[in-house]
Design goal:
The protein is an all-alpha fold. It is built from four helices and no strands.
Length: 101
Amino acid sequence: MLTTAIFLAPAMIMLGIWMVYPAVYTIIRSFFGQTGFLGTWVGIDNYKHLFTTSTLTTAIKNNAIWVAVVPALVTASASAGASHSRPSSSCRWRYLRSRPA
């Protein structure tokens, strides 16, 4: 148990320094004005402005289309390609012989 902790500690420390801390800092910083912590508290006004602009809503719609359509097209084309090609009987026999019992 101690050995596991010793081996995982450097990775967890680096993960905290390079991933967790910047993410938390960015989220906290987003509730302040342009000058940061020394500036004014704006709360969720930054997010209200962000999500009411047409540029971001268009970007979100375009990303949703890409996430839905592209994997479906790739899967459909791969399935169509796989259904039209059949391995030869010798290839199937080699595969079955190579499998462990």
